[in-house]
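Example 3.2
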Amino acid sequence: MKRVKRLLCAALAAVTLLAAAAFTAPRAYAEDYEDGTYTVSFSMDGLGRHNVAWSTATVHIEGGAIYVDFTLERVDPRDHAPQYDYLTTPCGTYYPTSDDATYTCTFSWVQVPHLGRVDVAAMTSAMSQPYEVEYVLHIDDAGIPVKQTQQPSTPSAPSTPSTPAIPGTPSTPAAPDTTEPATPDTPAEPEDVSAFETFKAEQKATIDKLAQSSDSEAAKKLIQAAGEALDALAYDESKSLEENEKAVADLLAKLEEDLTAQRQQDEKTIAPGSDKKNDANTTGDVTATAASEKKLSTGAIIGIVIAAVAVIGAGVAVVLKQRKKK
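Structure, written as tokens:
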């Protein structure tokens, strides 16, 4: 009888522990919260120094799904709204509403799988070619009420009394647990992150050196957009240092390619104007030559007339002299 009581107590303790674990499990998904619209704290990693995210966002919990509205604002320089074509989450693709007057772009009703940390990607149109950049959303759930649901109690099945051991028979030891523990994600080494930031700074200096005083506005915008994209590029912990540095190198190579093409296009645009100037100089030279030739022709005619008058005068003088002799 005592053994039965002990088994019942052990079963009750196990049920109690399972119920406590169910009530204290991490809460992140839509079914854990009350439906409604809430204002929460919000931040976004990877934006760089040109754009910032507003510190609050709106969360909608509806129909077993979570949606979020958030706004990005351009702060340096304040010349237009943040240039994003779309945002991709694990739930789908969403498009912003941009307002150049307020330097903002807003993403509305963006579905996310859970609250807390959410990995996303956004396509920026700041460069001559679209470029997809990875970001991290942080959505705080502290102000959202949690559903208070009680787990129904499950009656325990009657226990079967154990068979007493036969005297003199040694008990069989339990087999050792050979299950390997789960390997946690290995965080990035601090020295790798530091090396990546140093590499980024070196490539940023290289981008700045690409500028030339004769560059057109289009070429200057290419250099500015590449600098912004480089500032927004964060270290991806799922990749190696070499892979992260390759992403930076690819961005620089793309800039050099676009910059070369733009400068060639600028030279073609300037060339016709130069030809016109040369044509104008040539026309001026021809006109001056013609005027000079005209001036010479007039002088020659005057000389001929003077010579003719002198000859006629000499002839008249001879005739008069002969008449006097007669």
